[in-house]
Amino acid sequence: NQIVEMATAMAAQHSTLPNASIDTAHEDMIHDVQLDYYGKRLATCSSDRLIKIFDVSPDQTQHQLSASIAAHEGPVWQVAWAHPKFGSLLASCSYDRKVCVWKETQPQQWTKVYEYADHQSSVNSISFAPHDLGLKLAAASADGAISVLSWRGPQDNVWDEKPIHNAHQIGCNAVSWAPAAVPGSATGPNGFQAAIASGGCDGLVKIWNVPDNGEAVVDPEFEMAYKEAGHSGWVRDVAWAPGIGLSVRTVASCGEDKMVHIYSQPAGGKWTCVKLPPFEAVVWRVSWSLTGNVLAVSCGDGKVTLWKEGLDGQWRLLESINDQ
Q1: Which residues pair with 298 in a beta bridge?
Q2: Which neighbouring-strand residues pair with 5?
Q3: Adjacency order of strands within the sheet including 172-177
Q4: Is 321 exposed, middle or buried (0-12, 13-18, 19+ CB in 10 A)?
Q5: Cβ-based neighbours of 214, under 8 Å, separated by 6 or more
Q6: Which helix (H) or strand (E) holds 200?
Q7: How far is CA 100 from CA 72, 116, 233, 308, in A?
Q8: pLDDT, tens only, 264-317
Q9: How far apart are CA 49 and CA 26, in angstroms?
Q10: DSSP 181
Q11: Is 155 buried (19+), middle (13-18) or exposed (0-12) by CB count in 10 A?
Q12: Phi/psi of residue 259, each to 5°?
């Protein structure tokens, strides 16, 4: 049985949490763990091709299996919860080249309501857009492409599918949506913009501006900044920081070079990069707290570290959690 450390999934989402572990009864390696919007449900996925949903107690020390979904025909790499305004929706991606969206049609009963199967290789990462932009999903594949999938609405209940071909050479490993509000702008019809960060086997992090027509274009300002402070190996993960009350756009990345980079752009300013001290192992995942001021870093040696930026702009280690 695989044991998943809840602290790994939740430390970046909530600031003070007990250390709790769950025996998920997955029969193979667990690849992703995600809390829903309210922190009341936990989704896990595994190489055993299953997704499992757990109900989590208010103090997050108790859990109960509520559903087990035979989701894919291969290892399930990631799961992602949609915003609750769209109902109980969960997306998944797999080595079987598919993206699936699951809906809780009755309590503890999950039904597949959408499937995208046009990628030519494993789909490695998925991310829902901010709810302000509507029900949109981005998926990154080992075929080098990113797909942007947008639900039209309940009238025709179909999805628009826009691929970004050749987004990354060799393959794309990670994708993350930016917060919807432009830094320094009032939230309103003109205060929203859609942007996606991606990371690939070509050692690049890219930011894609996605206009209403869905034809994504590379952000040239970030492209220039990345050339001066890029990774030296495969990029394993990218994560936008939530933009709650912050006047800065921030995206973190990590990779095979055992490095974590934090790129920031103030409103109307230029992109800059801060690099955390080198880690002892390959860095697999980065995840932000809900307020965007704490970064969790997960490494291949089983260590999870929490980092916070000080008033002087320096990032400091808050806590280290070992996966024993």
Answers
A1: 285, 304
A2: 21
A3: 172-177, 195-200, 205-209, 217-218
A4: middle
A5: 148, 150, 160, 162
A6: strand 195-200
A7: 9, 6, 30, 35
A8: 999 889 999 999 999 999 999 999 998 888 999 999 998 999 999 988 888 999
A9: 9
A10: B
A11: exposed
A12: -120, 150
Q: Tens of pLDDT along 161-171?
A: 999 999 999 99
Q: Which amino acid is at 49?
A: R
- CA 115/CA 159 separation, integer angstroms: 10
Segments in the chain below pLDDT 50: 1-16, 186-190
Q: Whole-prediction pTM value?
A: 0.89
Q: Rounded to whole angstroms, how far apart are CA atoms 286 and 274?
A: 15
Both tokens of 78, joined, read 């990631």
From the DSSP assignment, how many helices (H) and strands (E) are in the chain? 2, 26
How large is the greatest C-alpha to C-alpha distance in the chain, in angstroms? 52
pLDDT digit string (tens) for 138-148? 999 999 999 99
Distance CA 267, CA 250 (A): 11
Question: Residue 204: how many CB atoms within 10 A of its CB?
Answer: 20
